[in-house]
Every structure is written in C-alpha cells, then in structure tokens.
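User: Please run a holo structure prediction.
Assistant: Happy to. Please share the sequence and the ligand.
User: Here you go; the ligand is NDP.
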Amino acid sequence: MNYRRLGRSGLKVSEISLGSWLTFGKSVCEQKATDIIHQAYEVGINFFDSANVYERGQAEIVMSRALKTFPRESYVMTTKAFWPMGDGPNDRGLSRKHIMDQVHSSLKRMELDYVDIFYCHRYDVETPLEETLRAIDDLIRQGKILYVGVSEWTAAQIQEAFTIADRYLLDRIIVNQPQYNLFHRDIEEEILPMCERIGVSQVVWSPLAQGVLTGKYRRGEIPKGSRAYQSGESSWMKKVINDIFNRKIDLLDDIAKEYDITLAQLALAWILRQPNVASTLVGASEPSQIIENAQASNVVLNFETLQKIEEITAI
Ligand code: NDP
C-alpha cells in the first residue's frame, strides 16, 4: 500500500480507503463488517470513512468497534455532518449548534476522544460560512477534531472557505470529498485545478460507481446479493446499463487483461493517476473485495493506456 499526504498537512493516508455507506450497519452483518475492516487494516489501509447520517450512527458504531483492535494512532477515522438527524429545526445543516452537537454525538457513539477529519457533508446556504468555520476551529482547538474537509462543495465555495480559514483561523481545509470515477468526471473541469493550486486534496467516493466498474452488471446481469439487487427497482445501476455501457466495460476489461489486473483495479489505478487525489474511497461487502481493490495501489498505467481509456470513455 502506498500513502499520500492530504493537502498541505502532515497527515498521510492510504491510496485506497474504506467507507461504510450502505454496508456497515445495513446490508453487511457486524461480524462480516469486522472481517472486512480487519482485512483492510491488514493490507495497509489506514483511512476509514463514516458519517453521522449513515444508518443514523450505526455505521460509525460498527466501524469504530472493529477498529478498537488496533492502536488509535495507527488509523485515520473520519465523520461528517449536514444531513438531517432529527425533525427539529436545528437537527441539520452546519450551524454552530448542530456541528457541536453532532461531533459530540459521533465521538460518544464511537467511544473516541477525537476524530481525525471532520467533513461538512454538503454546503449549507442558510448558515454564514464564518459561523461554520469558527465552530470547527473551536473543535480543533479543543482537540476533538484534527483536520477539516468538505464534501460536494463547488469550486467557488471551497475557494471562499479556504480563503476565510487561511486569513482568520489557525487551520486550513485540507481535503474535499467529491464523487469521481471513469463515468463521473465533473471535478476535472474546475475543482481539480483549483484545489491543486491552493493545496486541497481529493478523497473520492464511489470510485467503482457503486460496483458498476467491477463489470458485475454487464449485459444486465444483476448478481443476487449485489448492491443493485438489494436496491431493487430504484437502483441507478440498472438504469445505466445499455449497449454503449456494455461496449465501454468490454473495452476497459480488455485493457485490464493486458495488465493482468481486474477491471476494478484498472478503475482505481486510473483515478490514482491524478496527483491531487490522495485516496480512492471504496466500499466492500466481502473481505476479498478489499484485497483486490487494495492491490490497485501498486498499478501504474502508462501514457498510451491512459490515451486509450480517454477514447473509450468518450464513446
Ligand atoms: P464503490 O464505488 O467502491 O462501491 C462499493 C460497492 O461495490 C461495494 O459495496 C460492493 O457492492 C462493490 N464492490 C467493491 N469492490 C468490489 C470488487 N472488487 N468486486 C466486486 N464488487 C465490488 O464505493 P461506494 O459507493 O460504496 O462509496 C464508498 C464510500 O464513499 C462510502 O462508503 C462512503 O464512506 C463514501 N461516500 C461519500 C459520499 C459523500 O457524499 N461524501 C456519498 C457516497 C459515499 P456489492 O458487493 O454489494 O455489489
């Protein structure tokens, strides 16, 4: 496993990290979740992602319980806040009140003294940015949060928050968590160049497009137990499967075969070609998936291959 520095901080995270959305506390039982998390740690993953809203705190509980086996200093644990956690007017957003309440609740659930990274899960148009950043800065000074990140903010929002934090506070935003994969490349236009310039790293979610980029759904097959199977008719994976999609997957798979790697490993290595991406944040429903995904950290795709992939994605 290789490690990269997050933004301009001193923190190093594994190129492959493990998330808990839709799996831990939900589709994967606790024993298997523990096996997956332990497997991840064994292959060198030191970066674990959660959020208050994932199964209303259950994902945080399962993840932190499994990680208790390991020394606290050896792993990086994250959480997030923004989405509603109750019906009250202050049970959502990025107000000082909600952030303080949610960070304390997350720490209590996880039985931790501090969380390494706290993410603003979305931008809150109703709360002044200064209020949000001051609240986070206070939590950093209290030692309850070590670093700060944002998720799915626009380039302008990240730039503004970075400037305020840089001018008035001790700590900067060091990480952005956007969606990024072979089929979803929005961040390339504005966010990547801007973040590269100011020194904010990306930790990207759904790097395998929720499993689509493993090839398991090609030609409309929906394996029993897979995420698309469990999501039923609402599954977006089913909606993207068409002839063009199948052709792209086949061509990408041919490239993977040339490298003697799997399609999932190709998809992750393609993301890691970006120096501004510090980590690809995968999910897993089996320990074997984590072993396979972690090996992508050692795959380097050459220039000709990257050109070929560009042509395929443009079909
Ligand atoms: P992925 O794109 O990695 O999809 C994960 C799913 O794909 C797994 O649960 C598994 O599903 C399947 N899979 C993974 N590896 C393999 C493999 N090698 N072979 C076969 N199938 C595989 O990521 P997620 O969509 O799960 O997102 C990852 C994390 O990102 C989340 O856990 C969360 O922490 C974070 N996230 C953040 C968001 C944000 O707004 N900031 C939004 C969404 C996610 P199965 O086996 O069940 O088919």
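Strands lie at 3-5, 12-14, 16-19, 47-49, 76-81, 115-120, 145-151, 173-177, 201-205, 277-282.
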